[in-house]
Amino acid sequence: MDDKSAVVESSKPRILEILGPGLVTGASDDDPSGIATYSQAGAQFGYTASWTLIFTYPLMVAIQIISARIGRTTGRGLAGSMAKCYPGWVGMAITVPLLIANIINLGADLGAMGDAAKLLVNGYALFYVAAFGVICVLLQVLLKYKRYVAVLKWLSLALLSYIATLFVVHVDWSSFGRGLVLPTFKMDPSYWSMIVAIFGTTISPYLFFWQAPQEAEDLKEKPKEEALTEHPKEARKANTRITLDTLIGMAASNVVALAIITTTAATLNKAGKTNIESSIDAAKAIEPLAGHFAKIIFATGIIGTGLLAVPVLAGSAAYAVGEAARWKVGLSREPSEAKAFYTTVGLATVIGMLLNFTPIPPMKALFWSAVINGVVAVPVMVILMLIASNQKVMKQFVIGRGLRVLGWASCLAMFLAVVGMAVTAFF
Predict the structure, then answer these.
(1) Residue 374 binned pLDDT confidence (cut-offs 50, 70, 90)
(2) pTM score > 0.85 for this model?
(3) What stretches of 143-172 show up as alpha helix (H) in DSSP?
(4) Among 116, 140, 148, 150, which Cα is nearest to 31's?
C-alpha cells in the first residue's frame, strides 16, 4: 500500500512524501524561545557548548521515533494511549502542567515575534503580538488539515535564515570543530545552567504530544490506511517513513541550533557582548558586528519560526488535554465536531498573547516554563517508554532493543538535566 504523505500529490518528489510530522516537530523545536537559548549559549560561552547538539541528537531522534510509532501503531496520540493504560488522574497530572508551560512558552514566542516585526518595520510591538496570535488561531481553525500541514511544512523553510547568517560572519572553524567534537566541562554554575537549558530546549514534552497525534491524524486523511494494530502489513513502510522523517526533522533542528550558536559565538562572544536575554537582543546586537543584512535575517527567522511553533504549542496542549479528558480531538475534524478541542487551542493562544500585556517579565516566565517542562518531561518519557514496550498496547510492534536503549538513555539524560537545573539554582 502506498504510504504517502497526506499533503502532497504523487507527482511531487519522493522526499516531500516522506517529510511530515517529524519535519514539523523538529522545525518547531527552534522556536523564538529556543533561539534565545542558543543565542545566549553562543554569546556567553562561544563555541564550547556546541557539543551538546551532537550529544542530544540520537536521544531526541529516539524519543520522537517512539512517540511517532505509538501514534501510527495505535491510531491515538500519546495522551490517548496514556488514558487507555493509566487512571485519569495520571494523565491530568501531566497534561495540566504541560498546558501551563505551553501557554507561557507561546506567549513568550508571540512577544518575540512582535518585537521582531517592530525591529523590521517599526510600529507597535503589542499590535503585532495580537495580529500574530489571531493568525495562528485562524491557521488551525479555518484551514483544512491537508492545507494546514502544507503551510507548516513551508514555514519550516524559515529555519534556513539562520544557516544563511553563517555566510555573512567570520567563523573560527578550528574553535568550532573543537567545540563540536570535544565536550567541555567547566567548574562554572552558569555554564551548567546553560547546558541544562539546551537539553530542555531540544528534548521538550510538547514535541512528544505533537508528533504522536499527527501520525494518528494522517491516518484519518488516508482512508485506505489503518492503525498498525489493525493492519500490520503496513508496518515496514510506515516505520521506515517515520524513521527517515524524524532523522531529517531532528537533524534540521539541531543544524539550525548549531548555526545560531556558531553565529553568536563568532560575533557577540568575540566582541565581548555576552549578556543576551532574548532572541531580539541577539538580532539587535548582531547588526553592528555582521551588518544590517544579518539583523534582517535573524529577525525574519524569529517571525517565521514563531508562526510555525505557536500553533504547534497550542495544538500539542489541546491534544494532550483533550485526549486525557476523552474529548473528540483533531485538526482534521471540523470545529463543530470538536468544540472543546478547538476552544483549548484558541484559549491557549489568547491567554499566551495576553501575557504580553501584563507586567510579568517574559524571561522570568520562560524560566519557570523551562522548569515545568523539565520536571514534566521525565515522567512523560518514562510513561512513553512503558507504553512503547507494552505488548497489550503495541501488540507485535513493541519497540526493539536499540530504541529501548536510546529511549531510556534519553530519560536518564533528562533526569540528570533536571537534577542539574535544581543544583545550579542554588549557586
Answers:
(1) confident
(2) yes
(3) 145-155, 160-164
(4) 116
